[in-house]
Amino acid sequence: MEFYLDESGNTGGISQKSFENTYGGQKTFTLAAIGIGNETELNNKILPLLQHYKIKAKELKASKLYKRKPEFIAELFNLIKDENWPIFIEAVDKKFMLTANIVNSLVLPGNCFKAETRETNYIRNVFAECLYAYMPDELYIHFLKLCTEPSASGLIDLIDEFIGVLQNSKNDVSKAIIHSLNMTRDDVKENVLGKSDDISDFLPIPDIGKHGKTIWMLPNLSSFTNIYARINLFMKQNLSDVKIFHDEQLQFDDIVKKSKHDLESIPSEKLGFISDSSDYKLDMSADLLFKASHNCVGIQVADLMAGFFRLYIEQIRCDQPMDDSIREAHKILMTMNHQEIGVGLNMVMSSTDTNRINI
Question: How confident is the model at residue 305, as a pLDDT?
Answer without folding.
Answer: 96
